[in-house]
């Protein structure tokens, strides 16, 4: 009786990026985030490479064009914002204080500097951007709902109201220096947050602003 053997096909190993390659990518994204905030999305990629401490070829090996790098920076900031919201949502203490901490953290991410990039630099419907955006919206909405259920957040506001004010208040006014403006961001955000507390002292005109409202194109 002849024994038969079944030859197993060798399993293909998925190559993992080397640790130094991952570090270089992270340094490029961090440097790009800083420089986009300071100078806008048109900053030369050579300057980003210099600040990241890598060669130009390393930048282009990770990001074939400017749009790819901008998209990665935007998604990175949105992911960090989502993580801050998730940490706040996981807290078991005061719901409004958790919301406050999230708002101040979101402002520190300088998400306002990314708004013009999302509007003009690349495809707003790219799957990576959509996924990052949906994660932010869902988690912040849950955070706000919890504060409303606790009777601490006025009921006539929505996620769009919160995010647009965070973006506006953390964006330097025309003619001012970014670093000077940073001294006042958290002060002004706290004034806004105090106005969100329930019970409301006034009636807001219009209706709560949703994220869908923010996405609609402007019409005359």
TrEMBL record:
<keyword id="KW-0804">Transcription</keyword>
<dbReference type="InterPro" id="IPR049445">
    <property type="entry name" value="TetR_SbtR-like_C"/>
</dbReference>
<keyword id="KW-0805">Transcription regulation</keyword>
<dbReference type="InterPro" id="IPR050109">
    <property type="entry name" value="HTH-type_TetR-like_transc_reg"/>
</dbReference>
<keyword id="KW-0238">DNA-binding</keyword>
<dbReference type="InterPro" id="IPR001647">
    <property type="entry name" value="HTH_TetR"/>
</dbReference>
<feature type="coiled-coil region">
    <location>
        <begin position="126"/>
        <end position="153"/>
    </location>
</feature>
<feature type="DNA-binding region" description="H-T-H motif">
    <location>
        <begin position="44"/>
        <end position="63"/>
    </location>
</feature>
<feature type="domain" description="HTH tetR-type">
    <location>
        <begin position="22"/>
        <end position="81"/>
    </location>
</feature>
<dbReference type="Pfam" id="PF00440">
    <property type="entry name" value="TetR_N"/>
</dbReference>
<dbReference type="Pfam" id="PF21597">
    <property type="entry name" value="TetR_C_43"/>
</dbReference>
<dbReference type="InterPro" id="IPR036271">
    <property type="entry name" value="Tet_transcr_reg_TetR-rel_C_sf"/>
</dbReference>
<feature type="region of interest" description="Disordered">
    <location>
        <begin position="1"/>
        <end position="20"/>
    </location>
</feature>
<protein>
    <submittedName>
        <fullName>TetR/AcrR family transcriptional regulator</fullName>
    </submittedName>
</protein>
<dbReference type="InterPro" id="IPR009057">
    <property type="entry name" value="Homeodomain-like_sf"/>
</dbReference>
<keyword id="KW-0175">Coiled coil</keyword>
